[in-house]
Every structure is written in C-alpha cells, then in structure tokens.
What does this fold into?
Amino acid sequence: MNEERDENGTRGELPEDIQRWTAKRRAALVLSILKGETTAVEAARKHDLTVADIESWRDTFLLAAENALRSRPKDEEALHQEQVKKLERKVGQLIMELDIAREAMKLHPFPEPTSDE
It folds into this structure.
C-alpha cells in the first residue's frame, strides 16, 4: 500500500493519477518499495512511470539517507561527485560486458540464413 502523509500528518494512499511527483511523493513511493509493499515494476505500471525513473529515485534516496547518517555528512557537491563516479564505474562495466559479448560473437557467429527460410 503506497501511503503519503497529508497536510495534517495523517497517512493516506498515493493516488494513481498523480500529475506532479513532488519530493514527498517520490519519497513515499520509494519507502513503500523498500518496505516491500510494492515493487518498482508494479509502481511504474500503476503510476505510468518508467522503472528506470523509480530506480533512480531509490538510488538517490538511499545515497542521501546514507549521507544523513554519517557523523560528518558530505556536502551536495561531494554527493554528486560520488554518484558520478558510481555511474562511470557502471558504464565501464557495461562496456566491458559488451566487448566480451562481441568477442564471443566472433568466435561463435550466428549461422547465415539460407534461402529456404
């Protein structure tokens, strides 16, 4: 169940037809995913979002939460640089996987289609 606190501080379910995803609504959705109340795929389908957007919100939320619990929190620029480095490592990993797949295709190419097909 996706819940969000209203102006009075009471909890209510997130409406399905949200027009604007405020920080409070994004946080409520991420929390419901982290609590296991829903999944990113279910939430994306229900709210007409992409799974990538929701996963990005989750990653940002977790990074900020980790920083908030540090004895000496990093400033916003340091957090940004940390996230950039993490994404650069991921891109490098994906490029390596793609290179490996390309080399494997050279060793075991797909057979050429015949004219009978």
User: Anything to note?
Assistant: Strands lie at 3-5, 11-13. The chain is about 60% helix and 5% strand. The mean pLDDT is 83.
